[in-house]
Specification:
By secondary structure, the protein is α/β, with parallel strands linked by helices. Helix content is 33%, strand content 24%. It has a single domain, classed as Spore Coat Polysaccharide Biosynthesis Protein SpsA, Chain A.
């Protein structure tokens, strides 16, 4: 319980890692897999239960890594073809009135970041982490032409965890599935689009990276070894 609220977390680990070229969750980082490192980081006292979505083909291996070998208090749920489908299945396995959603390939999340997101979701209904953009983001149409630029002063790069009051996430997933939603997005976008609830964005951390490419893995190893300074 956190301030009278039961809190559940879903760590999404059902992706295929096509941009990375192999299963990035199984890469070793700091003496353990990225999978185990991320789940360990999410195992904080503010959470009452921890759900990990996995692909059907990886379920036996992930079960061995997380439960049989590491002894982590998690429940594995087989996900689906799309991120929001996996998270929807994970949500069905939770019981919290506040639900936290986190990328399985963000292994440097901290307890402070998790707790601040939970508390903002309790207050505002929806919350997420992000970092102000230091680059100019261009809007590009389907034909590859620039249509405009986002104001850098109001542009943030999204991170997870994201947290929501349960009813908002349930409604967003249900409506998105009924609508055949297929866009690449995150849960904050789904909740805004289908429930009209805007997420409060909080400062994340520049070490809270998502390992998507081999270059990201190089950065992660520098962070792990304490060789990359943070501005935070």
């Amino acid at each position: 319980m956190h301030h009278g609220h039961r809190v559940s977390a879903i760590v999404n680990c059902a992706g295929k890692g096509t941009r990375f070229g192999s299963n990035k969750l199984l890469v070793e980082l700091g003496g353990m897999t990225v999978l185990e490192k991320t789940v360990r980081a999410m195992n904080v006292p503010a959470l009452d239960e921890l759900i990990v979505t996995v692909s059907e083909e990886n379920e036996p291996l992930y079960r061995r890594i997380l439960i049989e070998d590491a002894g982590l208090p998690v429940t594995l749920v087989v996900g689906g073809a799309e991120r929001h489908i996996s998270a929807h299945r994970g949500l069905a396995a939770t019981s919290g009135d506040i639900v936290v959603v986190h990328d399985g390939v963000r292994p440097f999340v901290t307890e402070d970041l998790i707790v601040s997101t939970i508390e903002a979701a309790i207050e505002h209904g929806a919350a997420m982490l992000g970092m102000p953009s230091t680059v100019q983001v261009k809007l590009v149409n389907d034909d590859g032409f620039i249509e405009g630029s986002l104001d850098r002063a109001h542009s943030w790069l999204g991170q997870t965890p994201q947290a929501f009051r349960r009813e908002h996430l349930e409604d967003a997933y249900r409506l998105a599935l009924a609508d055949g939603y297929m866009r690449v997005s995150d849960d904050a976008d789904l909740v805004a689009e289908y429930c009209g609830v805007r997420s409060r964005i909080l400062p994340g951390h520049d070490h809270n990276i998502k390992i998507t490419t081999p270059q990201d893995l190089g950065t992660a190893r520098l962070i792990q070894e304490g060789l990359l300074n943070s501005d935070e």
